[in-house]
Amino acid sequence: MKIMVVENDPALRKLIRVNLEARSYTTCGAINGIQALYTLAGQEEGEEESPDLIIMNECLPDLDVLDLCRFLRVERAIPLIVLSPTHDEMFRREFASMGVNGYLPLPFDIGDLMALVNAVLPERRRLGVLGV
Questions:
Q1: CATH of 2-127, one of 3.40.50.450, 1.10.150.130, 3.40.50.2300, 3.90.190.20
Q2: Considering the entire predicted model, what is its pTM?
Q3: Higher pLDDT pick, 108 / 64
Q4: pLDDT above 90 (res 115)
Q5: Which residues have CB under 8 Å from 87's CB, separation 6+?
Q6: What is the three-class DSSP state of 60?
Q7: Domain-by-domain residue ranges, the chain?
Q8: Is 45 exposed, middle or buried (0-12, 13-18, 19+ CB in 10 A)?
């Protein structure tokens, strides 16, 4: 299973990817929303396999993450986990109303993120949509 990590902090992006790869997930990364969209566009054209899950920071430097989530919900059926430094209940509710699969406040325990990943992906397996 492939997971895309969209995180502008290189140390956090690496921490997440290393932990996912230690659990036998394949990962790809993006430093911002535009790079993530370019990567997804390439996957749409068959250049590489689409991710089964996207983990993204709420505070991307180039795109409003709410707009990015809305776009991904319309264009793709990829589960989303949002990492948030703001701890804002309004954002949490808005993300939930858009169908975001998980929301984790920063800083977080890496074990909590891995548990959330494991909770989101079995649902995707049950629906038979992995590797789409």
A1: 3.40.50.2300
A2: 0.85
A3: 108
A4: yes
A5: 105
A6: coil
A7: 2-127
A8: exposed
Distance CA 22, CA 38 (A): 26
Classify the C-alpha dihedral 25-96-12-5 as positive or negative: positive
- CA separation, residue 10 to residues 26, 82, 102, 106 (Å): 18, 17, 22, 15
How big is the chain, counted in residues? 132
**Residue 40: both structure tokens together:** 């997804």
